[in-house]
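Re: weekly structure request thread

Next one in the queue (265 aa):
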Amino acid sequence: MKKLFTLVLSLLMMLSLAACGSSNESVADLDYVKEKGKLLVGITDFEPMDYKDSKGNWVGFDADMAKAFAKKLGVEVEFVEIDWDNKTLDLDAKNIDCVWNGMTLTDEVKSSMATSNPYCNNAQTVVVKAKDADKYGIDADVKTMFKDITFAVESGSAGAAACADFGFTYKEVKDQASALMEVESGTSDAAVIDLLMAAAMIGEGTSYADLTDVANLNNEEYGVGFRKGSDLVDELNTFFAETYKDGTMLKIAKKYGVQASLIEQ
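Done, posted below.
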């Protein structure tokens, strides 16, 4: 009996140690990325963070920062367009190594990924046709202001979450650009998109000159997502601190007009 008790106690201790080890285990993504010589960056078409220029190359604040980070690691960068709803699945399956696409640091994101320090402030903003803007009082209660309209939002986005929080009627579309097209065509009354995207995509001199934003639904922060336990998080946070201090981050931000949103590192 004593021997059996000792054996059981030993097994329990081994299981306990294994559990402790697994909870603190670090994922060696840095070595993995360096060995394959490429950093796979998950993105969507999202100006001014990630979008294609006239030559078909991916540019934008996030894209340029990702290129600089990959250069620091001594690897190439490859941008992979993803379905935003499947971003965590793509990470875990190693279809991508990170999500770097103006991603809001929601509780859901932080529970499913390892995330960097926040680097940009943002908000979810309501976009309508400019001719309809006067219908919405700036100082009115948001729930009352938009209670009888239908929104278009990117599936699985912070905009969708904001609409759900307010109890708004909304339909989910492929991406934020599609949400703007819904408003432009009149198939939705309004869209909820990132404020930084709205600054680049709507109003005079843009592709959506007849659209405008009328109210922000929240305030939020952007971060980059990696696999749980990934050691690339510390690498990126160090990179953020270095590029903020030496002015590189600000220089790239000014190129795409997002300098006012930068968060000190």
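DSSP finds eleven helices and 13 strands in the chain. The radius of gyration is 22 Å.
Next request, please.
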